[in-house]
Amino acid sequence: MKKAGILTFILVCMGWGMSFGLDLPDSKLELEIQSLKTGGADMIGSQFTVDEDYDEFATEFDDGGIFDYEYKSPKKAFLYSLVVPGWGQMYTKSSIWKPLVMLGLEVGSWVGYISYHNKGNDLTDEYEAFADLHWIEGDRADSLDYSIDLDDPNYWDWYYTMINTENSGVPTTESLPEGRNQQYYEMIGKYSQFVGGWDDYWTVNAEFFDENGILFIGSVVNTPNRVKYNDLRGKANDKLDAANNFILVAMANHLISAFDAALAANRFNKRNSEESWLSVRTEMKKYSATEEMPIVRFTYHF
Description:
Elements: H1 2-22, H2 28-38, H3 41-47, H4 74-83, H5 87-91, H6 97-134, H7 155-162, H8 182-190, H9 201-204, H10 224-272, E1 278-286, E2 292-300
Helix pairs in contact: 1-4, 1-10, 4-10, 6-10
């Protein structure tokens, strides 16, 4: 449950981060279009014929605009690194160690996931084969005579006999699945209710049986085979859990890289705009080929 909660949190952060990326400052082209719309472009198009070489943004006192440098879009930077960690950092020309570290984490995470996932699957095959060999289920339909054949004991013979033995102490809270699925292999090792299926149970507890195969109270439930099985199963689960942790690391790396790239783009634009956080400048704003008006432009950097 803890890992599922962490995974859900990261996915929510990634979704919120993508919306953040889509709300970042507009691109150079978008800003120019917006300026054109608010600068009287409609009047120019409807009343005057403008020469092809005429630049509506040219000013008499022009000393360079905010976007005269190579603008880096925070949106692109965010999405680039969300797809491939480090890609956005390369786009924003961050220090070389950032994309190297983030790309290295990405590769390492997937290598670790594949390695531990394969080891976990191998151990899973091993403990399932061990259970198939040493945990003898028997036929549940033919075991209703409530007797145990000590020469060929199995789980269902033991179970039906024990639950009809007074004070046997055998729990009946769990129900064994019909097929040998993941739950089946978990239950036969986890619950003492299924101990009667382990083939060494009968040897370890031989002193507790009477001549009718009835087990006296006080028998050993942690047989060597059951202990070994649970050890194999625990190791397999540890490997699979480690593989899942590598996936969480990879997802976190994507998210952190994306936010860092968006912030790096903003820093790049502010650093290369050659203006302070607040600037004032005068311009002659042309509204047509024959009309212009002096204006004062205030620029504030967030």
